[in-house]
Design goal:
The structure is a homotetramer of 122-residue chains.
Chain A: H1 3-7, H2 13-32, E1 36-37, H3 42-53, E2 59-66, H4 68-72, E3 81-82, E4 88-96, E5 99-108, E6 113-121
Antiparallel strand pairs in A: 1-3, 2-4, 4-5, 5-6
């Protein structure tokens, strides 16, 4: 069976890249939110999120930056916090044939919301 | 600030519907996989997934069906299992202005994979 | 095979109740954190968390209260937020034979931390 | 405030170690189940789970082994699968004062269930 012919012939290459990048961004957010994190573990977690999400279909590259400033300000008994959306700055680059999309997750303080949007597409 | 003008002027209405539907499908999968489930709890869980995911931007309607046949065959000491992708059949309908997309998640046995694809788009 | 004899003969009934209650509390937190939520969906989510977690071994009763005051103050474009630990007040009652434990999750503002502790045990 | 005096004076040191270890095991399972994984990413994921969960209160050491044999047998279009409980073999060692517990998660094929139990306690 040719999966692409059977299931994806109703969208363009550009739309396929958009579709797969958006799935991966939604997946990333809801898989990793809640993980215990502090300054000691942040690099290991960034790397592991990247490695896991690059396995998904059509995903070429994932960059994850977790906000160190928030981690520096942790003030509780236990010296870690749970990962939240406002700490994340993520880029997901997806490709399908000549289609390409870069999906971004970024906390927009004016919106008080971790926004997912399309940074670049062709 | 007009979010749509500022962040989404590079994609069409059809693409915006596709984008938001795909995010929600990826989110749904990775948020709910692993939940304890059996025949007694299945309806409550379906309803709650639907209600939660319909809150996301541009999502008009979510339908969730969890495979009862798999739940009927549970044979272990504790009478429940963890929700997996192969139990899920989900439709997410997203709208943005005159754009509309229906995203589907369905386990395809030939692929041995819970496939996300675009069932309808305009 | 008698699971209890084979795997749990090194702890008392009281300790078994404690063990299973603690597992369920850790599970609950990390399964549900991140779910989209607002005042319209809160009751459905509380019910569904309760129903799912009561399936786990030795769990007699789960009570979940999500802080409505935090939900009332949502001020963003999209009228929902992601569930966090500070919104949760949960009691898990576990029993094994004559052992019983009540595990509590509650946000302690002095600690700036959602604390899990043993409210009652015998 | 002395958290231990205020919230944990109703359990012994041994019970405290048991409590914290069990929470961490439940948390680990429900946080990481569903992550995309294959043979290329498995080591990074094991390390990252370990690093994250060792941040939790009273956790001294976490060992995570993901079953490579299951990963070798992946046969689908996309060359990865979602992490499930049956792939995991985990040890969590927790300490509180002179109390110590080792909690184990292991898939028991006779039970058809990923069992959490107490491997050692004192």
């Amino acid at each position: 069976m040719d999966v692409n012919k059977k299931y994806f012939n109703n969208i363009s290459n550009r739309e396929r890249a958009l579709f797969e990048g958006a799935i991966t961004m939604g997946a990333l957010f809801h898989q990793f939110i809640g993980i215990p994190i502090n300054l000691k573990s942040v690099e290991s977690l960034e790397q592991s999120i990247k490695t896991a999400m690059e396995l998904q279909p059509c995903i070429n590259k994932v960059n994850v930056e977790i906000n160190r400033n928030i981690l520096k300000e942790i003030e509780n008994e236990y010296d870690y916090i749970s990962l939240t959306g406002e700490m994340l700055d993520v880029k997901v680059e997806s490709n399908y044939s000549n289609g390409r999309a870069i999906i971004r997750l970024k906390y927009i303080s004016e919106l008080n919301y971790p926004l997912m949007y399309v940074e670049d597409i062709r």
